Amino acid sequence: MASNRGVAYMGPGKVEIQSIDFPKLALGSRKCEHGVILKIVTTNICGSDQHMVRGRTTAPKGLVLGHEITGEVIEAGRDVEYVKVGDLVSVPFNIACGRCRNCKDGKTGICLHVNPARPGAAYGYVDMGGWVGGQAEYVMVPYADFNLLRLPEKARAMEKIRDLTLLSDIVPTGFHGAVTAGVGPGSIVYVAGGGPVGLACAAGCQLLGAACVIVGDMIPERLQQAKSFGCEVIDLRKDATLGQQIEQIVGIPEVECAVDCVGFEARGHGKQAGVEAPATVLNSLMTVTQAGGKIGIPGLYVTDDPGGVDQNAKTGNLSIRIGLGWAKSHGFMTGQCPVMRYNRQLMHAILYDKFHPAKCVNVAVISLDEARQDRSGLRVPDHDDVLHAGALQIGNELVRHIVRGERRRIPAALFATARHIEREGAPEPAIGLQMQSRQSLLPHPAALAAAVQERVIDSFGHGDRASATQTTLIVLGIFPL
Ligand code: ZN
Ligand code: ZN
Predict the structure, then answer these.
(1) What's the 110 CA to ligand 2 centre distance in angstroms?
(2) Residue 200's domain spans which residues?
(3) Ligand closest to CA 91
(4) Residues 88 and 226 in one domain
(5) I need a surface site. Which of 161, 372, 404, 419 has the fewest CB within 10 A?
C-alpha cells in the first residue's frame, strides 16, 4: 500500500506533517465508485486556512488541511466515465454532488448532499463536512465527473501551472466577488483588501472590463503589487475617510460597486488600523458604494469565532449598519464561490494568454539553484502583516505547512535548510513554498518560513531519510519590495 502524508492542524498555531492513510475510494463503508484518487501536483495554502491555524475557528485537532488542489488522476471508480487515469485536473474547493437542487442550479458552494451539518462542503476545512484535505500527497475526490476540470495536455498545462493552480479557489473566488458586485465594462470598483484574493479580484475586474479598479489595504507592498498591474490604490493607514480617498481618485466619494476581500478578521482604518473591527469593511463599503450598487463579499465570515473581539463576534454577530445598505438599495452577495461557474472560462483566459493571475497575486516558486544564485532576490517585507501563505508542491514528496512561530529573517532560515539539503545530497528542488501577502492579520512570512524550515529539518532528523532524499527544498517567493 502506498504511503501518504498530509498537513494536520494540531491546535492553534500548530500544524504537523503526519503519515495519513492512503485515500480509498470509499464513503464510510460504501464504495465510492464515482470518485477518483489524485496524486497532487500543486496545492496552495489559502488565507482561509490561516483562520484555522490561528485558532479562529472550531477546527478539530487532526484535521488534514488543504482545499486548493491540482493533481493527476491515478485511480478512478467504476462509475467515473469521462475523467481518465492520467488526466491532470483542477479540483474546485467546493465539493458538489451534481445531483441536488442547488448543484443543478449551479450553486455548487451549497450542495445539499456532501455535508450532513449544513449545505456546502470543502476538502480539509472546518464545518465543511470532514473531508480529508489535499495538503498531502494523495487525496480522494468524489463525484469526479461533475467536480473535476480537466487541464489540457500536461506539457502545456505545466508551462502555466503557476496560474492554473489558482483555479481551485483564489482566482474564481476573486472573480466571483467582481461578478457579484456587478463589475462590467467601464465600471468603477473598489476592492477592499489587497492580498491574493483582493489582487485576484482586481485582476478579474480588469478582465471584466472595469474602467477603474481601486484597491485598499494597509500594507505598502500590497498596494505596490496592485499598482504593478494598473490598479489605483488607497492606503488605509492614512487618516482620511475612505470616501475622501476615493474622491481624490475619481472625483466623487463613491464607487459604482465594491468587493469585500477581507472578511471577518478585518481591522479598522486610519488611527484604528491596528484594532480588529469585524464589521468595518462591510460598513465602509455601504458608505462608499453608490445607491443601487452591489457589494460582492467573498471575504470569509464565520458562524463561530473563538477569537472574536467580543461576545457577539464569537458567534458571527457583527454590528453591520444594514439600515444604510437598505436605504441605498444595495445588493449583497455572500458565501463561497461556486468555483465551477467560472473555472473553465478562467482557464481559457489563462491558456490564451489573456489573464495572468499568478503575476498579479505574486505567485513565486523559486528553485534551490535560483536561491543559491541570487540571494539578493529574496527579500523580506519588514512588517508582520502578511496573511496569506501559499505553498506549491511541484513534484510529489513533501508537503507544506503553516505554523505560527517566532519572527526570523527568511534568508537565514532558507539557507540553513538549503545547506542542510546540500549536505544530505538531495536532488534538485521540486518544491516551492510561495508566500503571498493577503490581509493584515496572519503570521509573518519569516515565521512561516522558519516553521517550515524547522519542520523539514525535523523530518530529516527523525529517521525519515528515505523520503527526505527524494524531498527537496522549500523555496520562498517573497513579496517584492
Ligand atoms: Zn482557499
Ligand atoms: Zn449537490
Answers:
(1) 7
(2) 171-336
(3) 1
(4) no
(5) 419
